[in-house]
Amino acid sequence: MKNGSMRKVFQVIAASTAMLALGGTMNTAEAVPVCLTVPEHTQIASLVQQFYEASTTGDIDFMEGIISTSPDALFLGTAPGEVFTGHTAIVQWWEEMFVFLDGLGYPNDGGLPIETTGGLLQLKQEGHVAWVADDPTFAFLGGDVPTRLSLVFRKESGQWKIVQGHWSVGLPNEELPLLPSD
After folding, report:
1. Cβ(105)–Cβ(118) under 8 Å?
2. CB 23 within 8 A of CB 47
């Protein structure tokens, strides 16, 4: 098989795996696609799953490769002040988090397990830009914490890269400090 054909076969396998990982189903007829190209949204969904896996395993190399090298790349963490701009700062944040969690006894080089809830809430794509919203759970050693995540991808040199990310830990409306405390 020529390299181009082999690459397409691997893309089909990756797309099928991503669809199944996102809660999809596949019958035998679907297993042999007529067209060997992978839709953009399937590639992006697969990258989100790989992003979760990299967080779970402490894979800083993947994080470095998936983050845009644009100086405008931005990541917002869950804590006040967690605003990271540029590839180097974002990757350093991930690396420091993995080192910190490793020091607390997290396995997999300080990987923070991220568990999905069964499928992305939203995945949209227009041209060379795509955005994702999801509600994964952080599986901390002391308990699970539901989160919300939004990612913006941009296609750069033929590869989808995260140009913006935002994690949040939501509070129920009943816990918002709407009135002054006594």
Report:
1. no
2. no
List CB contacts of 83: < 8 A, sequence separation 6 or more.
74, 75, 76, 77
Strand blocks (E) in 44-127: 74-76, 83-85, 114-115, 122-126
127 neighbors 105 (Cβ within 8 angstroms): no
Model pTM greater than 0.85?
no
Q: So what's the pLDDT on residue 37?
A: 54
Interacting residues of 111 by C-beta distance below 8 A, sequence separation 6+: 55, 56, 57, 58, 59, 98, 101
Residues in the chain, overall count: 182
pLDDT tens profile 33-62:
433 456 888 999 999 999 999 999 999 999
Q: Based on C-alpha coordinates, what's the Rg of the chain?
A: 18
Determine contact, residues 76/127, Cβ cutoff 8 Å: no
Give the span between the Cα atoms of 50 and 154, in whole angstroms. 16
Query: CA geometry: angle at 161 spanning 41 and 40, to 5°?
Result: 15
pLDDT at site 178: 67
Cα dihedral 168, 170, 175, 177 in deg (nearest 10): 30
d(CA 4, CA 10): 10
